[in-house]
UniProtKB/TrEMBL annotation:
Belongs to the class I-like SAM-binding methyltransferase superfamily. RsmB/NOP family. It comes from Ferroacidibacillus organovorans. It comes from the Bacteria. GO terms for molecular function: RNA binding; RNA methyltransferase activity. The active site is at residue 137. This is SAM-dependent MTase RsmB/NOP-type domain-containing protein. PANTHER family: NOP2 YEAST -RELATED NOL1/NOP2/FMU SUN DOMAIN-CONTAINING, RIBOSOMAL RNA SMALL SUBUNIT METHYLTRANSFERASE B-RELATED. S-adenosyl-L-methionine binds at residues 19-25, 43, 84. Keywords: Methyltransferase, RNA-binding, S-adenosyl-L-methionine, Transferase.
C-alpha cells in the first residue's frame, strides 16, 4: 500500500519517518521529493536501522538520514511525520494465521497505549500547517478510530485532513474519519490510515 504520497512530499521539506524499517516508505518519500527533502528515518532496532542505511546507500538517496533511536526521544521540528506505528498486525491474519493465537488483550492494550504516546509526540514535532499520517496494519478499533478520537480530543491544535477517494484505494471510511483497507475487498492486508494537519 502506498502511504508515502499522503504526506505530499516535495523538495525542501523536513520529513520524519517515525518507525522507518524496513525502509520502503522512507525511500518512496525520497523518490517523491526528487531526493531534495530532508528525511529522517528513525528506527529503534540497530539491525533494522542498518538495513535502511544499506538500502539508501545502494540507491544513492542522499536526502535520507538514518537515526538509530526510540522515536519518543527523537526531537526534530518538521513539516511532516509518517507514523506507521507498532501494532497487533491483525490485518495480516490471512498471511499469518498464527497471530490469532499469539496476540492477547494485554498486548492490544499495551500497543494502544504506545500508539497514543507516539501520535502525541509526532504532533509535537510538527510545524503549524504540517501533516501527520498515522497507519497500522490492523483493523481493531483500539488501534484505529479510538486513536483518532483520543488525539483530537486531547489536542486543539490538530485537525483531520480528509483522505480523498483518488489518493488511496480503500474499502471503507470509518466513523472517526480514517479509512480502512479490508482484506476480502482490497486483496491485501487489512490497514487503517488517518491523516491530520496541525492548525496554523
Amino acid at each position: 500500500m502506498k502511504i508515502a504520497p499522503l504526506l505530499r512530499p516535495r523538495a525542501g521539506m523536513t520529513i520524519v519517518d517515525a518507525c522507518a524499517a524496513p525502509g520502503g516508505k522512507t525511500l518512496h518519500l525520497a523518490v517523491l521529493s526528487d531526493d531534495q527533502a530532508e528525511i529522517f528515518a528513525v528506527e529503534v532496532h540497530a539491525h533494522r536501522a542498518k538495513m535502511i542505511q544499506e538500502q539508501k546507500e545502494r540507491l544513492g538517496m542522499h536526502s535520507v538520514q538514518v537515526v538509530h533511536a526510540d522515536f519518543l526521544t527523537f526531537e526534530k521540528v518538521c513539516d511532516a511525520v509518517l507514523l506507521d506505528a507498532p501494532c497487533s498486525g491483525l490485518g495480516s491474519i490471512a498471511r499469518k494465521p498464527d497471530i490469532k493465537w499469539t496476540v492477547e488483550k494485554k498486548d492490544l492494550d499495551d500497543l494502544a497505549a504506545l500508539q497514543t504516546k507516539m501520535l502525541n509526540h509526532a504532533a509535537d514535532l510538527l510545524r503549524p500547517g504540517g501533516t501527520l499520517v498515522y497507519s497500522v496494519c490492523t483493523l481493531t478499533r483500539a488501534e484505529g478510530d479510538a486513536q483518532v478520537e483520543k488525539i483530537l480530543a486531547k489536542r486543539a491544535d490538530l485537525e483531520l485532513d480528509w483522505i480523498a477517494d483518488d489518493e488511496l484505494t480503500f474499502s471503507q471510511r470509518t466513523p472517526a474519519g480514517g479509512v480502512r483497507m479490508l482484506p476480502h475487498r482490497d486483496r491485501g492486508d487489512g490497514f487503517f490510515v488517518a491523516r491530520f494537519r496541525k492548525k496554523i
